[in-house]
Here is the input.
Amino acid sequence: MLRNIRLLYIHNFLTDFCPQWPFLVIYFADITGSYTAAMSVTALETLSAALFDIPTGIFSDRMGRRVTMASGSLCYALGLISYTWASGISMLYVGAVLCGLGQCLFSGNNNALLYESLKSEGLENQYHHYRGSTGSMYQLALCLSAFLAMGLSHFGLQIIFMCAIIPQIMGVFVSLQFDEPRQHIHQRAKGLAILKQACVKTWNNPHLFWLVIAKALNYGAGESTFKFQTAFVNALWPIWAVGLYRGLNHALSFFGFRMAGRLIERFGEPRIFVVRDVYWFVTQTSAIILDSLVSPLMFLTGAFFFGPGEVASDHLMQKEFTDDERATMGSLSSFATSLVFALVALGIGMISDQFGLRAGLGFGVCVGFLSLPVNLWLFRKSFGLA
Here is the structure.
């Protein structure tokens, strides 16, 4: 099963080798002529992921991790093809639905595959180390692809989207090389039974329930804000520097993921959550108020905390998930996160069209900061607040 871990490094890299990501909002706005319409595409992508999340979690628990992973890469490739040759918002919406489907096929499935592969070898207590190192490949791919996008931007944004299709096709072939974890092979529950059990067990587990809420607020709002930051950066820096900004951001995130396991063991998950939430709010708010050439650099300083926060959240939830509904319970969390993302993305777009980029970005930052009181309440005993 450790062969699965090595393959996961490769697949994670291919999945997030996305040179188009720094220019998504800019590209959509060029086609639609509106930030609201541009953000509605990203919102639909994530809303589609929310709607498909639970069915795909059931699909993974019933049909297997390998087939689910291959299907995700294929759907994402088809979505990028739709984006590439879109001439209006209708084709962008088609691409958004396909990309959303691709994302949710990965969401609960891939972490479940990692945990089950480790459990087959008796290494599940090392999940946070492996989750950090495999997750770092996402950031390495995003970093390198962003630097590639700097050179490709000279040829136009459509060329960048065309190049982004290739690694997703490669990901299909890599995913077919995985072995199905033994922990998953013996599951017998039916689809609707899996969903019912996952919902009941999540609701009846207050610790897991509030972990899901905290992640939905932080990651859902934070990711929509992060995607919109490129429009703000483009107003301050030239277009080629947007790729540089995203590349540096993901480079710092890469090191954060690599250090995540050691930081969790040294400081614990609660302190990581609180430091991340406070630091992000202070630096991002200051950057928006300052509104100068150094503002993007202030955004960059918080990138390191992304990896430890994500690994800490995933580690805690995987320990609460049950073997029979592992992917489905992960999809319930992704569903909540996707809903928050979609609502915040639409809010950012509408506020930006009415009151400017800074106002829209500030709205996203404030919503993301709501995870702090949830984390403080959830871990109140750790901070002596009980």
User: Anything to note?
Assistant: Residues 2-179+188-378 form a domain with the Growth Hormone; Chain: A; fold (CATH 1.20.1250.20).
